[in-house]
Amino acid sequence: MTRARVLLLTAALGPLDYRVPQGSEAPLGSVVIAPLGPRRIGGVVWEDESFGAPDPVGDNRLRNLYEIVPVPPIAAPLRRLVEWTSDYYLSPPGSVLRMLLPGVAFADARRPIVEYRATGELPARMTPQRTVALGKIGARQGTVRELAKLADVSEAVIRGLVHVGALEAVSASADQPCPEPDPAFAPPDLSAEQTAAAAQLRAAVAAARFETLLLDGVTGSGKTEVYMEAIAAAVDAGRQALVLLPEIALTEPMLTRFAARFGCEPVAWHSGLRSTERRRAWHAIASGEARIVVGARSALFLPYARLGVIVVDEAHETSFKQEDGVHYHARDVAVMRGYFEGLPVILASATPALESLAQVEAGRYRHIQLPARFGGATLPDLAAIDMRQDPPDRGRWLAPPLVDALADRLEKGEQSLLFLNRRGFAPLTLCRTCGHRIQCPNCTAWMVEHRLVHRLACHHCGHVMPPPRLCPECEDEDSLVACGPGVERVADEVALRFPEARTAIVTSDTLWSPARAAEFVANVEQGLVDIIIGTQLVTKGYHFPNLTLVGVVDADLGLDGGDLRASERTFQQIAQVAGRAGRGVKPGEVLIQTRVPDAPVMAALVAGDRDGFYAAEAAARRAAGAPPYGRFAALVISSEDIEVARGVAQRLGAKAPVADGLAVYGPAPAPLAMLRGRHRFRLLLHAPRSFDLQGTIRAWVDSIDWPAKARLAIDVDPYSF
Ligand code: ADP
Ligand code: ZN
């Protein structure tokens, strides 16, 4: 009889033993379906020794595995990565495993999924709901469930539309072959500097050994062109390549760019895929047929058959940090994957994270620099506008020098970009009469006005409400006023000042799909947009040669709050958005609106002194024992019942571990004291780098009894403070 230990796809349980049915084989790494009580649950055959004590169930009482799923086994290096991730981020291994094996992994790749699309026929009986649904569906196709979600109606409504002939089934063949990228399709003529950098990357791929390479090049230096050479080398060697991007919105333009270089689009992986696409992608990745994969951070855990290189583009981006479920940092996990698999990892950035530069300094990462823009383009000039001396008109947000610069670009037919990292119209709605502020009922957060869609929305939980006419508190009429600017309000000001200018607002509200993102890029490239007004979504990736002016509407926005990375983030964000200016033959200008032009970060930006800024920042962090020289971990205890959450936090606080070098702060209300209807308390740990934070936290958390109504989230190396 063969016994197999199986790590199941559930957070609640460790591995369990099963019997391998006679005549079947289930070597290590096999993907299986197992019985769990009355349920069927997926899992992976794992080493006996990995997770603690053996399963005590005797041979004669073992249950049979239901099925060995016919997909390639999860290889040993990836199993080690699952263990490391679980250990380091203090997350159940079953939760980590789910990132490798989404539901589509278990679907038969040959069974067709039925998708539907509009026929153009209107049903005889049109209900308002059907009209709205068909309007929202438009020309898109998807399964019944996907269309229901898209149109925000029940599945019954969609099935009704199929029944009356307004939607028709289309056969979505699930196993279309992936096109083969051709490394020789359109290689660029690299400059001497680029050639040297590319040669190092190619050699690292050929060596097929673990190494981390920091590709550190100014904006527009050709980092993408250069790392594509490493990818070409991997494809030439019969390997797969993975490129991680920080935003879904960047995938579509990147796919197009890869198609121009390699003759066909890579395989995409992100949360916006339809289930057919997702299923096709997963199986092509696992079989090795998908040669180049471009994806969001979740692409990192997939079971590549023959991975040869990982590229993390815009590697400094904080969106690589996952803030729910398994709280992992994709940049760090990418490096660990490279370590376990024995392959090179390339971190590309114009403004590397301080953590990455510290690794270079320590001799652990190889530093590859591209100090100049490609093709003779120069870096833009940065200047600060002191908002105390040059304030905008009352109720306006653009200072006179910025307005003049915009007018100048309009006259010359050049494009401008206004950057403000705030979605919506106004971040706060206030009653002039009684001072009431409209707050989210579920979160400690103001409701943000989104005027384009006539809604107030909470940016934390997604709660929306129509804008009230009366103050909810004093019931005064016409007393509610919008406070502060969001991108929509800046767009209003632009429209008022320059009625002839063609503008585009770019936020996750307007660029919610890859198709919308592609449309935006095409419009700007064809010169159909004069002024772009956008959030951090426009700060990276884009290359618009005719864009010569960048205005940073509120450079101080990110400096408030207690975030230890506030200065670094501000530097990176402004340097990145500045990098959108002057990428063609015309030089670029960047105007930074700030009330603290003398702050070191502003001074460094204006002086172009990146090294000086990083050195000062590193010194300050070292003195404070902050990352990367020390470590933090946060424990957030939450419950719908505030007393339960407070009680657990206090009991935990009373048993706080005591050790040399370790400091424990709290419990205190978490920065978002209420989130999605749950009250949150936080304990923060601070320790030197070498301290065993994980072991300490594990023992500590086990030392108290947890009521069922309290939940614990552990964030190792937290990013939001
Ligand atoms: P980065 O990623 O460093 O910001 P990109 O790789 O996006 O830079 O390059 C900036 C622009 O210059 C892109 O339009 C790119 O196609 C172009 N470019 C860079 N290097 C070359 C090259 N060797 N030959 C042709 N075009 C290049
Ligand atoms: Zn909310």
TrEMBL record:
Binds 2 zinc ions per subunit. Its EC number is 5.6.2.4. It is an enzyme of class 5 (isomerase). Residues 204-370 form the Helicase ATP-binding domain. The keyword ATP-binding applies. GO terms for biological process: DNA recombination; DNA replication initiation; DNA replication, synthesis of primer; double-strand break repair. It catalyses: Couples ATP hydrolysis with the unwinding of duplex DNA by translocating in the 3'-5' direction; ATP + H2O = ADP + phosphate + H(+). CDD domains: DEXHc_priA. GO terms for molecular function: 3'-5' DNA helicase activity; ATP binding; ATP hydrolysis activity; DNA binding; zinc ion binding. Keywords: ATP-binding, DNA replication, DNA-binding, Helicase, Hydrolase, Isomerase, Metal-binding, Nucleotide-binding, Primosome, Zinc. Zn(2+) 1 binds at residues 431, 434, 471, 474. Zn(2+) 2 binds at residues 440, 443, 458, 461. One of its GO terms (cellular component) is primosome complex. Its cofactor is Zn(2+). Transmembrane segments: none annotated. Pfam families: DEAD (PF00270), PriA_3primeBD (PF17764), PriA_C (PF18074), Zn_ribbon_PriA (PF18319). Component of the replication restart primosome. PANTHER family: PRIMOSOMAL PROTEIN N. Belongs to the helicase family. PriA subfamily. Initiates the restart of stalled replication forks, which reloads the replicative helicase on sites other than the origin of replication. Recognizes and binds to abandoned replication forks and remodels them to uncover a helicase loading site. Promotes assembly of the primosome at these replication forks. This is Replication restart protein PriA. It comes from Sphingopyxis alaskensis (strain DSM 13593 / LMG 18877 / RB2256) (Sphingomonas alaskensis). The gene is priA.
